[in-house]
Design a protein that fits this description.
Number of helices: 10
Largest sheet: 2 strands, antiparallel
Order of helices and strands: HHEEHHHHHHHH
Oligomer: single chain
Radius of gyration: 22 Å
Strand order of the largest sheet: 1-2
Number of strands: 2
Number of domains: 1
Length: about 325
């Protein structure tokens, strides 16, 4: 949709998921780190100390470790019986598809091909949501299809934006090119995340780029379609285009600072937890990881039982 709502809807979609991912990934990372330190403190039981939750052990000690593993989605404790992320993706994208379809008609005919492009983009994100749900319920499929379809969705978004610039103003082209770069960056980050499953870095890069896309969608909408009587931008003025570039850089800085803030919040929150609380919060996350890559994320059940038993003995 060529209006403010047409940019707010996808922006809200991307911001919602990336903020959820930001809190969830730091929570998982620091919980895994806490659990690894807890088993290290129980060295009398022969448990080794993991390196930052990454599963590697110091001094050659033999222990499975509490391994941090990236996943494309994160479980919600309030809806543990369902794949909430996948359901929300399907819901949001269907709303977007319906909106683009309805507003694409003129004189009883569907004439807006720009809306048709947006429908295609929404469809591939909807497909990603479907694969998330199927992966959650163990449907037979090749491995990593949640990541594959996410890569495909962002690649299609990038292709559409690269051929979405004809006839636009110079400022409009400039802003959509920034979205194009971010979309291709998401594709690269997702591929790296599949390969480096035990490293939090590619996952954080993916989340950063998605969140930046979301905030930039909002900015584009407010620049191209200023609401509430706001002053319109001169979309061919070079000085105002320089302001757009500066604005994008401030978006990048603020998103980075937001993620640093969440990192600090989740670190402070998890460091106060008892070993028992760490164990209970890790269980649903570990279950999610096992469904995604069982050969990488398998947790030693006896080891986790020892952690909780040791903590209960301390309480006594």
């Amino acid at each position: 949709m060529g209006n403010l709502g047409g940019h707010v809807i996808p922006g809200s979609f991307l911001v919602l998921f990336s903020v959820w991912w930001t809190f969830s990934i730091f929570k998982r990372y620091y919980l895994c780190k806490r659990a690894t330190l807890a088993e290290g403190e129980g060295g009398e039981n022969g448990l080794g100390v993991g390196s930052g939750g990454g599963g590697r052990l110091e001094s050659g000690k033999s222990s499975a470790g509490v391994i941090y593993v990236n996943t494309a989605t994160f479980p919600c404790l309030c809806f543990s019986h369902m794949q909430l992320e996948g359901v929300l993706k399907i819901t949001f994208t269907i709303i977007g598809i319906v909106g683009e379809f309805v507003t694409g008609f003129k004189g009883g005919k569907f004439v807006n091909l720009e809306n048709a492009q947006h429908i295609v983009m929404y469809f591939f994100f909807c497909l990603n949501g479907v694969m998330d749900v199927l992966s959650h319920y163990g449907a037979p499929q090749p491995p990593h299809m949640d990541y594959v379809t996410a890569c495909l969705a962002f690649a299609i978004e990038a292709v559409i934006f690269s051929h979405h610039l004809h006839g636009l103003t110079s400022m409009d082209i400039q802003m959509h090119k920034m979205l194009l770069y971010l979309a291709w960056g998401c594709v690269v980050a997702l591929m790296a995340e599949v390969y480096f499953r035990r490293s939090i870095v590619p996952a954080l890069i993916r989340i950063y780029l998605v969140l930046l896309q979301g905030t930039w969608f909002f900015q584009i909408g407010f620049i191209l379609y200023p609401p509430w009587g706001m002053e319109e931008w001169d979309q061919e003025d070079h000085s105002q285009m320089m302001v757009v570039t500066i604005t994008f850089c401030w978006h990048a800085a603020l998103v980075f600072l937001f993620m640093l803030l969440v990192n600090w919040i989740m670190y402070c929150k998890t460091r106060r937890l008892s070993p028992t609380s760490v164990y209970h919060r890790l269980r649903p996350m570990q279950s999610s990881s096992q469904q995604s890559i069982q050969h990488l994320s398998k947790m030693d059940t006896d080891q986790m039982r020892r952690i909780i038993e040791d903590s209960e003995e301390e309480d006594l």
